Amino acid sequence: MSRDSEQKISDLETSGQTPSARMGRPVDLAKEAKILEAAKNAFLENPYDRISMDALAARAGVSKVTLYAKYKSKDQLFVAAMSVGCSPIYENAKLEVEAGKPLAETLERLGIDFIKMMLNPEIAALHGVMMQALATQPELPRAFYERVVHNSTNILADVLTIADKRGEIACDQPYLAAVQYIAMVQGEFRYKQELGVTSGIDNEELELFVKSCVRVFLRGWRKD
């Protein structure tokens, strides 16, 4: 990986800026981060159906015009707050393989970061908020799936396509392979999260588990 490429990845991780944010009209990253942080706290502290966009704007210290210019609805803002921890994990993976990093290393890093993000107490709590709101906000989970889950899987599929083109794997179904990898690395961690029985992360155990998943995955999609 070139020094320039490493610096681009480092800058992205430091700023929290996504590739999509760097395209088109510039955005005020500090203001956007403030909005998302205020929204996250509001959703964690109050029932979903009792939170208004007016209240969210006031809490973030921005005008309603500013808030609505960026987020057309409360559902959209909630999904954006949920995606903060997830999207950079996948976007960085694409930057890494584009810069020439071996696929195995990228998948290991992505898997470890994904599990840590999934088990983050705030992310887990927001997921709980979304499921509780399902009865009155049936479109919220669908929006989350499309904006976060489906989008992240597509980015990983792009990563695998790049690896296929440079001969690291033989993958003619990159989206299917991406679904398989994400499902594999979740392992029992997902059940522990949903059942509330997780008691922190054993980093050594997590690393060994993810590396094993990567070996199995690459063996299944190996280039003959």
Give a topology summary:
Elements: H1 3-15, H2 29-45, H3 53-60, H4 64-70, H5 74-83, H6 87-98, H7 103-118, H8 121-132, H9 139-165, H10 174-186, H11 189-195, H12 203-220
Helix pairs in contact: 1-6, 2-3, 2-5, 3-4, 5-9, 6-7, 6-9, 7-12, 9-10, 10-12
For the record, the CATH class of the largest domain is Mainly Alpha
In percent, how helical is the residue content? over 70%
CATH T-level fold name of the largest domain: Tetracycline Repressor, domain 2
Number of helices: 12
Q: Which blocks of ≥5 consecutive residues have pLDDT under 50?
A: 1-6, 8-26
State which percent range the strand residues make up.
under 5%
Work out the number of β strands: 0
Q: Largest sheet at a glance?
A: none
- Judged by helices, strands and strand pairing, the structural class is mainly alpha
Series of H and E elements: HHHHHHHHHHHH
Question: What is the name of the CATH superfamily of the largest domain?
Answer: Tetracycline Repressor, domain 2
Q: Assign an overall shape.
A: globular
Average pLDDT score? 85
Overall domain count: 2
The radius of gyration computed from the alpha-carbon positions, rounded to a whole number of angstroms, is: 19 Å
Identify the CATH architecture of the largest domain: Orthogonal Bundle
Gap between N and C termini, in Å?
26 Å
